[in-house]
Design a protein that fits this description.
By secondary structure, this protein is mainly beta. The protein is built from 2 helices and 56 strands. The strands form 11 sheets. Strands 21, 22, 23, 24, 25, 26, 27, 29, 31, 33, 35 and 36 form a 12-stranded mixed beta sheet that branches. Strands 11, 13, 15, 17, 19 and 20 form a 6-stranded mixed beta sheet that branches. The longest helix is centred in the first third of the chain and has 13 residues. It is globular and about 115 Å long.
């Protein structure tokens, strides 16, 4: 008996030795007739199935008793053995598992070998399997032997992380795409794109065992979504880690990749290392300089200052863990006195009861196993004046806006002094400043012996670390006498406990509505985004990039699919969270009733809502929004930007300042010497917007604030972009062109033009100001 598999499968010979007494034949008489196929008989009544690939898979793959596959009825129950106990299914399974079963699926390449095998993680089965078992999430071996394969292989698609589509034959050992010239492995959209790349800083100096962190920025320069591969050459692989090696970018979208370098503890690492980072075909270079000894920085107090306290804290940081040594001598003394403290990367030593009205000279030293670093020599003068009550403070705050702590100051002099408090903040993820009395808002006077508390406000809504160390400064403005102290801030990160549930799906537009319920602490930087596999195939409305999600709050949002002529199924994940804690929720859209039609409507209004919280004491705020495909600049009648500001404190607490607003690097509006409150409207030049031919295009709003005090708290709570169009063309699931046109009006971010004009007669009183 011979079995000839379907087209595109190589022939497999199945050689069987059944018993003489029973015969599964063509005419049903259990006798082998002359016209029926002959058999070669052997011993033990067995069946053998042999692979026809002698150069790779040559072996006997099954030997068994063949009586279970004949028409005998040994138990005389009227059922031939072939149909007992699903033996017929067993026979088909055996044959199918050996000769293969056609499969088409999409997945992600995990790894490939030079021998022509790839491990691919299955994401989606495109053709259902009848006999063999394979499901999304499985990792399979796909073979495409170079010298034998006749299939269509896109070798550029075989990079780890690449999404591919595979059409081939599945066997127990894996999948082959070599059995037929129609089989293939090919890359799946997105395509490789042209991108720009930059790195900051361009050069860093660190020590043996130290770290260096660079930020790589990559931008999509094409008008369609695509993939970018990040590669680095010039450094050993075990030295560095890239936060991402593959980026999926929408048109004009820019993304950051963090390069974290950890220098090994070896003298061999010393020297200048130049390396190149590439994004597809473009590249940029940077430099890492490694020295043996530690690096000293952020040294305090400054050189040449007059200090009001005779208890002095000396503070500095080093690039690696090293010793803490202070050398100090008074004016007229020939030898330095040495003071030490624990080793570390942050160093502080307090010296008490120094003599007043005297100059001191000092420097610090930090050593480790590879060398020593010595700071510059500095001087200070101990006077009388205003001082902090302590040399060192420790506070615990929540990871939230507007965290207040109180710092006591006193006047140790016999004369009154005007004072000004300030803070040195080297961090980019927290914003700190003194407010009220003693700050730049209100300089106050302290009488001799008087003590007051100053308010230091920390906005820690974006805090990454759990501990921060700040230098605070006190200055007597009338005599230029200063004091310095150290503030240690411990940040209590929130208990993250939220749930995302699908509320429902609109049966006409297939738009899905979701609800977020926060059962935990407030999340100050709550973000909702889409996974790479769906980010160019759907939009979120309203967009949520930096939302303040209160405890117990319910937040609603929509996910709107972007169908195409090429696909009617969209699968991916929603990624939501904050405080560096994120959760993934699967999402799927299927155009089951009908097919994607290119809907067309006239004079719609496309609206993008951004529900975010931004504190404008951050001088640089970025809020991204996306415009879906379906229109371009020539279709735009007008575009407007609406921005809402609110004042959590009383208006009298604030000072006028400047706010500059840009879209994609072009100035769109500005507020000069004002305290922003309420809604402001700005016209957008359509030529500065980014448009997409496929998917959606990223646009970036930049709010630059000139405000002298980081402690203040002005909030931007909502942004709306409104674009009036001549026409809009968008793929949508429908049964007809007419139905598609009608359904477009029901999508949440598309509005019909107003048929009414509202007019209100204003009668402002003297001095009253109205804003449009």
């Amino acid at each position: 008996m011979r079995v000839f598999p379907a087209l595109c499968i190589p022939r497999y010979d199945i050689i069987a030795w059944p018993d003489e007494d029973c015969w599964l034949d063509e005419d049903g008489d259990y006798e082998r007739d002359s016209f029926e196929e002959s058999f070669t008989y052997g011993l033990n009544g067995s069946i053998a199935i042999v692979s026809p690939v002698p150069d790779l898979k040559s072996k006997v793959v099954a030997v068994m008793d063949s009586n279970v596959f004949d028409n005998c009825d040994p138990d005389r129950d009227g059922i031939p053995a072939f149909y007992e106990y699903d033996n017929d299914v067993l026979a088909l399974n055996i044959v199918s598992s050996l000769v293969g079963e056609e499969i088409k699926f999409r997945g992600i390449v995990e790894a490939c070998t030079i021998s022509g095998d790839c491990q691919i993680r299955v994401n989606e089965i495109l053709s259902p399997l009848k006999l063999l078992n394979l499901k999304p999430g499985d990792t399979v071996i796909v073979s495409y032997w170079f010298e034998n394969c006749k299939g269509h292989i896109q070798f550029e698609a075989l990079n780890p992380g690449e999404e591919v589509e595979v059409y081939g034959k599945i066997y127990p050992w894996g999948i082959s795409v070599c059995d037929c010239s129609d089989y293939y492995i090919k890359g799946v959209q997105p395509k490789r794109i042209n991108s720009s790349i930059s790195i900051f800083p361009n050069n860093i100096t660190t020590s043996i065992g130290g770290q260096a962190i660079y930020e790589i920025k990559v931008k999509n320069m094409d008008d369609f979504p695509g993939i970018v591969y990040i590669n680095l050459t010039g450094l050993r692989n075990d030295w560095y880690n890239l936060s991402k090696r593959i980026l999926i970018l929408n048109p004009d979208e820019e993304a950051s990749v963090i390069l974290n370098i950890t220098v090994p503890k070896s003298l061999d690492a010393v020297g200048i290392h130049r390396f190149i980072v590439s994004a597809n075909n473009n590249s940029t270079s940077a430099e890492l300089r490694i020295i043996a000894e530690p690096i000293i920085y952020d040294l305090s107090p400054p050189n040449g200052v007059k200090l009001g306290s005779n208890d002095i804290i000396f503070y500095w940081k080093t690039s690696v863990k090293s010793s803490s040594e202070l050398y100090i001598k008074a004016e007229g003394e020939s030898n330095y006195k040495r003071y030490v403290n624990e080793s570390g990367m942050e160093h502080s030593i307090i010296i008490r009861d120094l003599s007043r009205n005297r100059n001191y000279t000092w420097y610090v030293k930090s050593c480790n196993a590879y060398g020593c670093a010595i700071s510059e020599i500095r001087q200070f003068y101990v006077d009388n004046g205003i001082v902090f009550a302590q040399r060192e403070y420790t506070f615990t705050i929540n990871r939230d806006y507007n965290q207040s702590i109180w710092i006591a100051v006193r006047n140790t002099d016999n004369e009154q002094h005007e004072l000004l408090a300030s803070v040195n903040n080297p961090y980019e993820d927290i914003f700190v400043g003194f407010v009220g009395e003693g700050s730049s808002d209100k300089i106050i006077t302290l009488k001799p012996g008087e003590e007051k508390y100053l308010k230091l406000v920390v906005h820690a809504q974006d805090a990454i670390l759990k501990k921060y160390t700040l230098n605070i400064n006190l200055t007597a403005l009338d005599e230029d006498i200063t004091d310095h102290a150290i503030v240690h801030i411990n940040v209590k990160h929130p208990n993250i406990n939220f749930e995302i549930v699908e509320v429902g799906t609109d049966s006409e537009t297939l738009v899905k509505k979701f609800k977020v319920v926060n059962y935990g602490d407030p999340i100050t930087d709550f973000t909702i985004e889409l996974s790479d596999s769906i980010k160019d195939k759907a939009v979120i409305s309203p967009e949520i990039n930096h939302y303040y999600l209160k405890s117990g709050e319910n937040l609603y949002f929509y996910v709107i699919p972007i169908f195409s002529e090429e696909y009617n199924i969209i699968r991916g994940e929603i990624i939501a969270g904050g405080a560096r804690n994120f959760r993934n929720v699967p999402i799927e859209f299927k155009c089951e009733q009908g097919k994607p039609f290119l809907g067309k409507i006239e004079n719609p209004r496309c609206v993008v809502e951004i529900n975010d919280w931004y504190c404008i004491n951050n001088p640089e705020i970025y809020a991204n929004f996306y415009l879906p495909t379906g229109f371009n600049e020539k279709d735009v009648i007008s575009a407007k930007l609406f921005i809402d500001f609110s004042l959590p404190w009383s208006r009298s607490s604030y000072r006028p300042h400047n706010v500059y607003i840009e879209i994609n690097g072009k100035e769109t509006g500005k507020l000069i010497n004002t305290i922003p409150e309420g809604r402001y409207t700005f016209d957008i030049d359509p030529s500065i917007l980014n448009y997409a031919s496929i998917g959606k295009a990223e646009n970036k709003i930049h709010i630059h604030t000139e405000y002298p005090n980081q402690g203040h708290f002005v909030v931007n709570t909502h942004i709306r972009v409104q674009i009036c169009l001549k026409k809009l063309e968008k793929w949508i699931c429908a049964k007809s062109q007419e139905e598609a046109n009608e359904k477009l009006w029901k999508i949440p971010n598309i509005e019909k033009p107003s048929s009414k004009i509202n007019v209100k007669i204003l009668s402002p009183s003297e001095g009253e100001v109205f804003r449009r």
